[in-house]
């Protein structure tokens, strides 16, 4: 076996070893997303989600973040009213 074949074979082995690791991380991410969605759904049903949103909005009221968000929303609304036509 020449050295090039050995090198290619070792690269293939490394890829095969990395694939199960990637599958495990993908599976873990999927499980985390599922748990997050379940918790969010439970919070929506109980009204807890809306309560937390209101608390957060009260804390952010008057902040730069709120001002930037409002300006962005106004700009998008104006763009919809007056679309720019390219000639």
From TrEMBL:
A cellular component term, taken from the record's GO annotations: SAGA complex
Biased composition (Low complexity): 11-22
InterPro entries attached to this UniProt entry: TF_ENY2, TF_EnY2_sf
Pfam families: EnY2
A Gene Ontology molecular function term of the record: transcription coactivator activity
Location of the region described as Disordered in the Swiss-Prot/TrEMBL record: 1-35
GO terms of biological process kind: mRNA export from nucleus
Protein name: Uncharacterized protein
């Amino acid at each position: 076996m020449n050295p090039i074949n050995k090198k290619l074979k070792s690269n293939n082995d490394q890829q095969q070893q990395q694939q199960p690791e990637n599958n495990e991380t993908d599976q873990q991410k999927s499980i985390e997303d599922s748990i997050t969605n379940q918790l969010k759904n439970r919070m929506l049903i109980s009204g807890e989600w809306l309560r937390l949103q209101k608390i957060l909005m009260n804390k952010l009221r008057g902040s730069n973040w709120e001002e930037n968000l409002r300006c962005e929303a106004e700009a998008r609304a104006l763009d919809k009213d007056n679309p720019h036509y390219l000639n």
